[in-house]
Amino acid sequence: MLDRNKKIGGVGQKLMMALGIVGLVILAGAILFPIFAEVNHRDKNRIARSNAKQFGVALMVYMEDHDKHLPSFKNKESFRAAIYPYIKNDEQTDYVISRMVYTNAGLEGLPLDSLSDADKVVLFAISPEREDSNGVFVVFANSRTKLINDHLILQTISESDRIVLEARQKAKESEPKPEN
Length: 180
What we know:
Elements (H helix, E strand, L loop, with lengths): L1 H64 L10 H12 L2 H10 E4 L18 E5 L8 E6 L4 E5 H25 L6
Antiparallel strand pairs: 1-2, 2-3, 3-4
Helix pairs in contact: 1-2, 1-3, 2-3
């Protein structure tokens, strides 16, 4: 009878060890899951930032080929058609265009070299991959890309608009006056 109890105790002990190991694995998973989720979030933001940066560089090349003028931002299809030869990647082009939340239509027809602070002029902004991010990726006229927090985006765009308006006024003043 004692031998029989030992076997039962041995099985019970093995069962307890197995449950303990399963519990530790679950605990480790609960601790590590948020870490892996954060890494995934950062990777998605890096991809969004990289796509925005490549799009900004493509715009710079476009402008070199078109006398420092930007393509039209009036509608997404004409913009896509103009910029596509410089990206040549349907997936990346569609990704960036579908996530655009702001385009600077005020730059249309204005040569980029007429801007006093190109590093402060916003070309376009795209939303990050995850909606719970607290900002947007902004591509500036010098092709620099930066994540701007939601509470600073309006200030950044206002500063950009001020610079564009000053450039437009200078261009208007430098136009030859019609003779009477």
